[in-house]
Each structure stands twice: as C-alpha cells, then as structure tokens.
Amino acid sequence: xxxxxxxxxxxxxxxxxxxxxxxxxxxxxxxxxxxxxxxxxxxxxxxxxxxxxxxxxxxxxxxxxxxxxxxxxxxxxxxxxxxxxxxxxxxxxxxxxxxxxxxxxxxxxxxxxxxxxxxxxxxxxxxxxxxxxxxxxxxxxxxxxxxxxxxxxxxxxxxxxxxxxxxxxxxxxxxxxxxxxxxxxxxxxxxxxxxxxxxxxxxxxxxxxxxxxxxxxxxxxxxxxxxxxxxxxxxxxxxxxxxxxxxxxxxxxxxxxxxxxxxxxxxxxxxxxxxxxxxxxxxxxxxxxxxxxxxxx
Length: 297
Prior knowledge:
The protein is of the alpha+beta class. Among the domains are: about 70-130, Roll (Nuclear Transport Factor 2, Chain: A), CATH 3.10.450; about 155-295, Glutaredoxin (3-Layer(aba) Sandwich), CATH 3.40.30. The chain has helices spanning about 70-80, 130-150, 175-185, 185-190, 210-215, 220-230, 245-260, 290-295; strands spanning about 15-20, 80-90, 95-100, 105-110, 115-120, 155-160, 165-170, 195-200, 270, 280. The protein has a five-stranded antiparallel beta sheet, sandwiched between helices. It has a five-stranded mixed beta sheet with strand order 6-8-7-9-10.
C-alpha cells in the first residue's frame, strides 16, 4: 500500500447555505462558524503501517476581498473565507468559487439572480460533484498554509541547514517506529540531500515528556536528538527531572498540531511532492516508499 496521502477534500459536514447579494446568510448556520473537525486524541500507540485519514487545513487568516469578486464572494472573504478562486462547474449559467473556511474547503455557487449557495452539489447518482475541481483550486494555498504552520512549530533540526529537501515528522522519543524512520533516512540526511525536522511530541510513555524536555533543553538539541536515536536500544537519552513551563507549552502545542494534521500516532510524516503539494505518510513507510518521501538517493 502506498504511503502517499494528498490533501483530502470532503463536503460531508457542510450544510447548504443561501447567501444574499447583500452578503447576509438566509439560514442561521454559517460555513464560517461551522464547528471545526473534531480533535483527535493524541494518546495513541505508534503505527507500523500507513492508515489513511482525512487531512485538515490549518486555520487561515482573513484577507481583504478583491473588488472584482461578486458581492456574495466578497462577503465570504470578509467573514474569513480565504483562497477564494473561481472554478468551472461545467454547467451553463452556474459559476462557482472554491475557498477555505477555517479548516474546511467550501464551494459557493452563484445563481443568475446574484445570490449564492454554499454547500454540496449532488449528482443524479447521489454522489458529491466538484470535489476534484475544488481540490485543484485550493490545494496550492492549502499546502502553503500547512507548510507555514509546520515551519512555525517547535522542531529539532536533523541534517544540513541548506539541504534541498525538508521533511517534517511528528516524533516521540520513545517511539520505535520513529527510530526506524530515523535510521532509514540516514543515507539521505548524511548525504546532505534531506533535512528532517522532528516536531517532538510525548504520547508513548510516561517519560516521553521528560525525554523530550531533555532534547529541547539541551545546549545542542540536534545533538541530543541524535544521542537519543543512537542509544535507543539502551533506553535513549536520560530524562530530565523537571520540565519547564516553556517546554511543556511546546509539547502541548506540537501535540495539538499533530491532531490537527490528522495523525493518531507517531511517526506522522509531512512532505511536499514534486509539484509542491503537501502530502503525508502515517507510520513507518515501507522501503519502496522512502524515495517518494525523501527523494532519489
């Protein structure tokens, strides 16, 4: 089974919503105020094989809507919907825009009278339409938003600073599959082709927190992470006695980010494909998938 998982797109949780030309919703519910995807409990066992799950986009910031957009689309932009771009519905006189409402891709359909409907267009076979069209329109801004959020997280550098390829991995100091991925990546990292960025979490054992704190609090965190991996069979790095508030906050934030990206366990690997689109792999990748994630050796 391939470990590749592109940006997931679903209309499942969106209810149809009429938007008037004045930008006022006809119904009480609003896609901008819809409940976010339910968080996933971060306390989970490590994974040995891929397990595809939906991938949500990190929340994006509102932008000033271009005046060239129709009024209903401008209203959505003012409410915080981002990455709004038109797409072809394939139906005469039915234009539409794709966008991101918090963690949800959405579609807004523009009616001939100037009003709009946000929701899912269903085909005669009962299946949602426009999924591929909307995905293509929002995958680049969605990828950029996710990549930026990872870059702003608390991670430990593993590899050369100027490596041409960057791969993020949610890692627990006690995770055996994280260790196996660290070992498998050595040829790429040691050759300067890949920089791994370990977004440390503490979800496996009770001392995962104090081991992660030992790495974060070390004078050279990269060397401390390497020490933990090199001595993994002997128990890894020595845990610290006390965890500072700053380190505890880093771990909590990373744990929330791991759940936001849809990972139930470690390692959770995030990378860009050859088109620059963010993809992910759940668990330790099989050997034949390493070049997909890390590039050619």
